Inverse folding.
């Protein structure tokens, strides 16, 4: 895990980056008549982007957990989110109060983890990464099919009562205040709390230490008696619950439907940015992409005909692949001869 | 010579007719030997003789095709790593296997994982009994750090330590489990004379102070003759000698095995 000290440069770099992009836009606004810029508006867009980014972080986090503990790129992460959200909606439609539906769905995700370990991971232990990756593609289709079989394939509405009206904040600083989407705000807060809980769990508990040990060196972990299989079940369970939370939040916004399974594609650039093995990396990568694509779309969109949001993340990822392939926090890739 | 000799007791672990092959490569062929309580047993032999494979069989990393292992009176065809650790077998590796991202202290604490029992809800709160337990284990870890004289690198991520110190931390992590049987795969490889002397002293101290049974692989004959009570020699996966250092040194088969290889 990256030491807290690694965050210090960010405390300086982030405000500087935000400030200079703002200044650049202000300059552009002076030069190009069709370019609209106001600081209040800029921050509004930025915050909306960051809130969106927390969701990207959440999805990426599920990937990182599994990748760290078992070096598997879990293609099924998105379908886990879909399956979890479908299960949640399914129980709510039966009249179960949402907190109970949540607990039941979390239980179902733990069960899914147990089955995956037993049926997929255990027989394939010590196989090449590519084989395990293919196996997760299999899991993707099975979960997708199972979800539709159990709960049907219509688009479902998931509403757990998060307020959706916009609210205004910081009226004292910016004229008219900043418009913040309450749903995004609550969602980001939830995501933030989940990440904090996980961080404490990993840093301070015996199980957390065992997980870090497995992520660091399999052989050594086995030799001190860490049961790898139990650890895999725990990691996949945690990833499943993270997927559940992500699924609820995304599904609550756009309906629970197949496209949810494809949020995995949005997580990929986040992982390239943050590094596949870094939890802080997943979080910061998600925030950068969320904020970046929103700001780019709103301020630069009409110069290039819009739809920047569709490709911005991949562009940024491409730049990183060329100049910093290990990502912001990933371990440096050194080939030993 | 170690003073443990007069303390040597019954058989702790017996290997019987163990054979292990990787595809066409026979790493071990019908190897049998015993490790007795409190002794320091050296396993020697030319490169590729099957020494590391033998340790891997004992702690369950490799599963032999034939033979049996009797440990603490329980006979089984193969060990499992988790079971081996839980029943008191700890080890170090030929190519150091530490948790490189963690500090020295954390690495040693990880060696105590099996000794910690509080359930994770308590741990998550990091309070009450769990905190008390954590503190007890911290103290045990600190005693090992003092014992191995590595106080100054307590907080250093081990990936940044020089090779010799990494080997010492790895020994510390194995000791943290308070093992009954300690397996050391080339604990002194790549060390300078001074570091080797320190490591010898630690190994002898572990044997004397804790009565730990030790099986170690070593290439340096001087070291082997100095610290071991008994030596077994492997060559091409077969055991070719078994006895005191002096007996083994004079054994013609051993001399042949070493002269026969031109590494
Ligand atoms: N995991 C493995 N897969 C395939 N072959 C292996 C494996 N482990 C060991 N071997 C083979 O088994 C034989 C014995 O290897 P082993 O590592 O036990 O030797 P060693 O006595 O420890 O040698 P060294 O002194 O070089 O460490 C060698 O031929 C080696 O190539
Ligand atoms: Mg070896």
């Amino acid at each position: 895990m990256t030491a807290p000290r690694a965050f210090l440069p960010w405390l300086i770099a982030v405000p500087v980056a935000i400030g200079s992009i703002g200044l650049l836009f202000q300059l552009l606004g002076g030069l190009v008549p069709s370019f609209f810029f106001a600081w209040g508006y800029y921050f509004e867009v930025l915050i909306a982007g960051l809130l969106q980014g927390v969701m990207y972080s959440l999805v990426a986090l599920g990937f990182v957990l599994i990748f760290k503990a078992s070096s598997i790129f879990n293609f099924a992460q998105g379908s886990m989110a879909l399956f979890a959200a479908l299960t949640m909606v399914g129980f709510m439609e039966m009249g179960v109060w949402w907190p109970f539906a949540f607990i039941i769905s979390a239980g179902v995700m733990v069960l899914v983890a147990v089955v995956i370990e037993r049926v997929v991971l255990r027989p394939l232990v010590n196989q090449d990464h590519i084989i395990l990756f293919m196996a997760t593609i299999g899991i993707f289709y099975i979960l997708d099919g199972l979800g539709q079989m159990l709960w049907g394939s219509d688009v479902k509405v998931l509403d757990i009562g998060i307020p959706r009206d916009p609210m205004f904040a910081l009226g004292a600083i910016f004229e008219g205040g900043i418009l913040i989407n309450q749903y995004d705000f609550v969602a980001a807060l939830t995501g933030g709390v989940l990440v904090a809980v996980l961080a404490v769990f990993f840093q301070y508990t015996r199980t957390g230490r065992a997980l870090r040990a497995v992520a660091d060196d399999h052989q050594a972990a086995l030799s001190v008696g860490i049961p790898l299989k139990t650890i895999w079940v725990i990691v996949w369970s945690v990833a499943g619950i993270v997927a559940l939370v992500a699924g609820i939040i995304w599904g609550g916004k756009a309906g629970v439907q197949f496209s949810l399974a494809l949020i995995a594609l949005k997580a990929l650039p986040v992982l390239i940015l943050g590094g596949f093995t870094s939890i802080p990396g997943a979080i910061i990568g998600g925030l950068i992409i969320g904020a970046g694509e929103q700001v780019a779309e709103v301020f630069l969109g009409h110069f290039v005909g819009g739809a920047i949001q569709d490709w911005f993340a991949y562009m940024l990822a491409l730049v990183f692949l060329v100049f910093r392939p290990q990502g912001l926090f990933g371990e440096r890739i050194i080939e030993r001869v | 010579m170690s003073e443990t000799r007069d303390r040597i007791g019954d058989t702790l672990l017996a290997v019987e007719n163990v054979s292990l092959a990787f595809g066409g490569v026979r790493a071990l062929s019908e190897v049998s030997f015993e490790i007795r309580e409190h002794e320091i047993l050296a396993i020697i032999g030319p490169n590729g003789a099957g020494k590391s494979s033998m340790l891997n069989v004992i702690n369950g990393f490799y599963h032999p095709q034939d033979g049996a292992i009797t440990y603490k009176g329980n006979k089984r065809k193969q060990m499992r790593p988790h079971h081996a650790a839980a029943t008191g077998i700890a080890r170090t590796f030929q190519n150091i296997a530490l948790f490189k991202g963690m500090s020295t202290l954390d690495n040693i604490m990880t060696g105590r994982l099996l000794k910690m029992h509080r359930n994770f809800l308590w741990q998550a709160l990091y309070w009450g009994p769990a905190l008390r337990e954590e503190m007890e284990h911290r103290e045990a870890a600190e005693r090992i750090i003092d014992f191995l004289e590595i106080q100054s690198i307590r907080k250093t991520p081990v990936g940044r330590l020089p090779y010799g110190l990494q080997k010492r931390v790895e020994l510390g992590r194995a000791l943290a489990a308070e093992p009954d049987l300690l397996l050391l795969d080339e604990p002194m490889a790549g060390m300078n004379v001074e570091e080797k002397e320190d490591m010898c002293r630690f190994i002898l101290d572990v044997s004397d102070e804790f009565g730990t049974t030790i099986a170690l692989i070593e290439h340096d004959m001087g070291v082997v003759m100095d610290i071991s009570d008994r030596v077994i020699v492997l060559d091409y996966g077969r055991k070719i000698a078994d006895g005191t250092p002096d007996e083994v040194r004079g054994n013609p088969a051993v001399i042949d095995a070493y002269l026969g290889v031109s590494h």
Chain B has two domains: 1-88+179-263, 100-178. Residues 240 and 253 of chain B are 7 Å apart (CA to CA). Chain B has a mean pLDDT of 88. Residues 129-147 of chain B form the longest helix (19 residues).
